[in-house]
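User: tokens in, sequence out, please.
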């Protein structure tokens, strides 16, 4: 019996160690198209390295691994939600307006245009984090991809040593189905 334990125990121990990673592995639901890294995204998180492929213009480099400053005009290309050509969609952008910007500019007005259709502007006159969101008519979203152009009424002039004109800080931007 002692001999059996001596030979059996190491085998059982090795089998248990081999099975631990399998037993502890998380079981994820199958990834849908929304998580397919080869497809353009509906929502761009600036912290995601893939987001830069859909930033058309007007965004500066990623900072602190989480956000980007914009210039006066900036744009993105986004995948349109399913059924948006019938139901429309909502564009959403999480932004930060800094106190330093407001000290220089007093207020900022953000306007947007989706595939050439103007959306209502929004004015920021105090610092903080904001969610710019507007509904988009189905007629503005006839294809699988859409271009969203943003414009600020003014930006801060460059301040040495930074040579950029800066507008707002963007954390994420994208479409949501209605």
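Assistant: Sequence out:
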């Amino acid at each position: 019996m002692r001999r059996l334990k001596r030979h059996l125990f190491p085998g059982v121990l090795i089998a248990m160690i081999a099975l631990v990673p399998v037993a502890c592995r998380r079981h994820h639901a199958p990834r849908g198209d929304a998580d397919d890294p080869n497809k353009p995204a509906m929502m761009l998180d600036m912290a995601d390295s893939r987001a830069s492929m859909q930033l058309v213009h007007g965004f500066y480099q990623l900072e602190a691994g989480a956000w980007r400053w914009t210039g006066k005009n900036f744009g993105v290309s986004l995948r349109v939600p399913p059924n948006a050509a019938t139901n429309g969609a909502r564009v959403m952008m999480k932004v930060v307006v800094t106190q330093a910007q407001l000290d220089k500019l007093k207020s900022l007005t953000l306007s947007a245009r989706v595939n050439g259709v103007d959306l209502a502007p929004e004015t920021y006159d105090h610092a903080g984090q904001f969610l710019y969101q507007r509904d988009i008519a189905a007629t503005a979203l006839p294809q699988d991809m859409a271009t969203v152009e943003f414009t600020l009424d003014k930006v801060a002039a460059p301040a040495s040593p930074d040579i950029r004109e800066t507008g707002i800080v963007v954390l994420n931007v994208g479409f949501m189905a209605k």
